[in-house]
Write a structure and sequence with these properties.
The chain is of the alpha/beta class. The chain has helices at residues 15-33, 39-42, 64-67, 87-105; strands spanning 2-9, 45-52, 58-59, 62-63, 73-81, 112-120, 125-127, 130-132. It has a single domain, classed as Macrophage Migration Inhibitory Factor, CATH 3.30.429. The protein has four helices and eight strands; from the N terminus they run E-H-H-E-E-E-H-E-H-E-E-E. The two termini are 26 Å apart. 26% of the residues are buried.
Length: 151
């Protein structure tokens, strides 16, 4: 299972924007991980939103709400199953996540986005008392690092 956590300032995303971004991030994950968007593949992706009140998130010692507009600061952290995550796949994955965020919130003049990918070791994820084994990426992903289907 892939879990994507999106942190933003309170009020940066209304309910409609969260819904749109949740769907866009799910598609971005599936593009790189499986190359297909099916109900079964979607069931293995979770998107969570976390909002911070003004004055509770700092960067370089300054509250981010003093530096950036509320729709200009995001942290996107993805937890993925350990697997064949090459630098190219990670780059394509982060590019897809960034495109999803920008498509939803636009590109304000001052914008900062941080992205992290954490690989979860085999057997370390459990849901409904069933431990997940194996990685979420096939040994030979169906798409290249840009998300295009392999021939």
């Amino acid at each position: 299972m892939t879990v994507v956590r999106v942190a933003s300032l309170r009020g940066a995303l209304d309910a409609a924007a969260r819904s749109e971004l949740g769907d866009s991030l799910t598609r971005a994950v599936l593009e790189v991980e499986t190359g297909r968007d099916t109900p079964e593949a979607r069931a293995a992706v979770m998107v969570q939103f976390e909002e911070f009140a003004p004055g509770t998130w700092y960067h370089a010692g300054v509250a981010v709400d003093e530096r950036y507009p509320k729709n200009g600061i995001f942290r996107v952290a993805a937890s993925v199953m350990q697997g064949p995550w090459t630098a190219e796949l990670k780059s394509a994955f982060i590019d897809g996540l960034a495109r999803a965020v920008r498509a939803t919130v636009g590109s304000p003049e001052r914008q900062m986005m941080w992205f992290t990918i954490t690989e979860i070791p085999d057997g370390a994820v459990s849901a409904a008392a069933a431990t997940r084994r194996g990685n979420s990426l096939p040994a030979n992903p169906p798409c290249d690092p840009t998300g295009r289907p392999r021939s």
